[in-house]
Here is the input.
Amino acid sequence: MNTTPPPLLDVRNLRISFRDGDRTTTAVDGISFRLQHGETLAIVGESGSGKSVTALSLTRLLPEPPANIESGQIFFNGTDLLALPPEKIRAYRGKKVAYIFQEPGSSLNPVFRIRTQIAEALRLHRPEVLDEEAECGRLLDLVGIRQPRTRLNDYPHQLSGGMQQRVMIAMALACQPSLLVADEPTTALDVTIQKQVMDLLKDLKKNLGMSFILITHNFGIVSGFADQIAVMYRGRIVEQGAAPQVLASPQHPYTRALMDCIPKLGRRQKRLTTIDHDNLTNTELAHP
Amino acid sequence: MSALPLLQVRDLCVHFPVRSGLLGRSVDTIRAVDGISFDIPRGTTVGLVGESGSGKTTTGRAILKLVPATSGSITFEGRDITTATPSAMRPLRRRMQIIFQDPFNSLNPRLPIFNIIGEALEIHFPELAKKDRRHRVAELLSKVGLKPEHMDRYPHEFSGGQRQRIGIARALAVQPEFIVCDEPVSALDVSVQAQIVNLLQDLQEEFGLTYLFIAHDLAVVEHISDHVLVMHSGTIVEAGTPEKIYGQPEHEYTRNLLASVPTLA
Amino acid sequence: MHPATTAHTASLWSRFWSHGSARVFFPVLLLLYLSALLAPFLAPYGEADQLLSKAYHPPALPVWKNGQLQVPRLVLTNKATREFRLDTQNPWAPVSLFAKGSPYQWLGFIPCDRHLFTTSPTERLYLLGADSYGRCVFSRLLYGSQVSLSIGLIGIAITTVLGMLLGGIAGYFGGWTDSLLMRVTEVLMSIPGLYLILALRAVFSKDLDSANIYLVMIVILSFIGWSGTARVIRGMALSLRERDFISASRALGQNPLIIITRHIWPNVFSYVIVSATLSVPGYILGEASLSFLGLGIQDPQSSWGLMLAQAQSIRVLVSFWWMLLPGLLISLSVMSFNFVGDALRDAVDPKLRLAR
Here is the structure.
């Protein structure tokens, strides 16, 4: 009882590169971060910063090649996932680490009913569930879909984008994972729907006590959800810390720049602030 | 200059028939746009905000006659273009252009940038020799912040923000007065969004452009617009200056939109 | 994944070439077409040059003897069974390289009379034997390949252009244009191919000269072939029409036909190339069937189907195996096109590749 349990996720010095012909580009350049049980980490960065690559690499979902995990360890509950053989990793996917992606429309199979798709996940990872119908209904109810029993009969195209994303979340929850990785879950959605989905994720976090990793380019959706924030820029984490601190007093100029470019209501700026990449690369990254 | 607005829309309706059965009988209609009216004064930006399915995109396309209007009228510089034939529209196409939401869908993946932008010049400035066309495309590329030597590359070699700039250069090629910006920043990272919004504002200042700016994000619309229209289920539920929309929203739906804007606090 | 797409375009050829079957069968196709192109030069004799006394002469290989290429001279010993033996008194006939022989017009208009190798008009070098008129099978195979192989390419060119144009128009315009064109393709597709060929062929007179028969065959085969391509192109055009780059072009006031050729065609092209390659065998076989049934190329002109038709008897099958060579060439070319088409499809769209 006196030994502290290992963190849920402990990523150390992860380095991932991509091969394209003779060229090798480093997508993730030696990053380390930790996630405790029940905590939420937001990885914030622009496209190309390596944030999605990091998320996918957690359960080795990246196609290798072209991707190549050059070095590092990913400890999940004390087990190094990168040292596991591929067939053992599969047991972690879905069951321990579940994903939701940006495009709910393309993540759902258009030819199957919602019921079939959730039940498939259940059968794969929770064979002990006997009443699939009831469990599927409960899951849809959990993600805030009204009349869940009737909705189970729908096909994906009969649902709006926001509803589809809720179904994706329900499918992810079906396996009762300890970690849910949400990769840009609201980017393809309208702002009103974005708010609803984020509110849903906040509720789930409060009620289920799960851990989350939220991958996003938008600082605006991070507040009120994340406990920790890691800011990624060109494959490196340039700033990480507790969410309130990072949001209130960002230390790194890139973090500040990323926050500044969000248009704010009621502040009639003449121009929106943009990120001066040349300046950042020259000054700040050379001497971090 | 007369006080006549550049564009007037009156009671515009766009209905799509829902067909079914063997003979394609129309069984129902979707009222995508259901009787909307507004003016766009020259040199201003009118923001049109609403959710997907509200009819905002259809409105933009109906103005450019990319989808047929069911009823109502669209008047460009005092001239009713609602029933104009394709050949009558042709000279007007040079004056009204469009920028699209999805930078991955709006550029033909099989054509180099020179051909994509040059197409506009070919149609509307057939007198330009190829050398002059290249010169003009180079000019346009630098105008939108890209390098002239990029013109022989293909769309897949560019990032989303760069593609959006190419789309803007294509629209600018014909020296239009009016541009429909159909969610030009919705698919972009926030940092890139800011660059594109700034670019659009710079170009407006330089060329005296008039915009219809369509978006679902009220914060962006509020920033760029002189006048805001809030659209819901095919109708305009609220219209006014950005200050008024933001300060004293009257409609329930507008208040909902305002509450959805993400904040750092 | 921008780097991946760059690699995609750049390595099209290398992916095609890395395919085992492409490496084998692409050179085979090149060789077949090259020899068809050079047929009159490579063939020692004209396609109609006959020597009745040497009918069904077996294949004979030349040898190097006394500083000269010579071929054994055979004489007929049994008229009924067509048995030959070596002419003991005068056993060798000289073969000359790059010599003047029967005159021909290369590509139909360049007069020439040089052959890679030939003999004097009274002697014969039958590399692959002789047919029932004592004509050189090797020469006739070469001349026949001109018809059999070109009909596929020309036919596919016509159907592809027709299919792309009509399919593009149907898909882009939609509405009644689409309905009309698609009903036409359905009617065409519902008629059994062979009967249509027979019916159409019957419309044209039987005593056309060879050049006209050749044209008629191309027209018939293309007429049947375009509907399949058109239907697929129409489907692709329907989905492309919704893409914004098409809207952008429409917003510029672009002419619809230019939208189809410039924006729709390049995007369906990889599919078209693959499907064209895979349908060439249909034309080669179509020509073979027509000629086999006596409705195609007429003697003395040659084509592989016609040559095969002249080999349909037990006696030929048993005694004169070389008469079946055109069948082998038909199989080889059809197979090559299929394998090359497969490799091309895998190279164009790696996602379609099936587990092998």
Summary: The first strand of chain C starts at residue 63 and ends at 65. Chain C has 13 helices and seven strands.
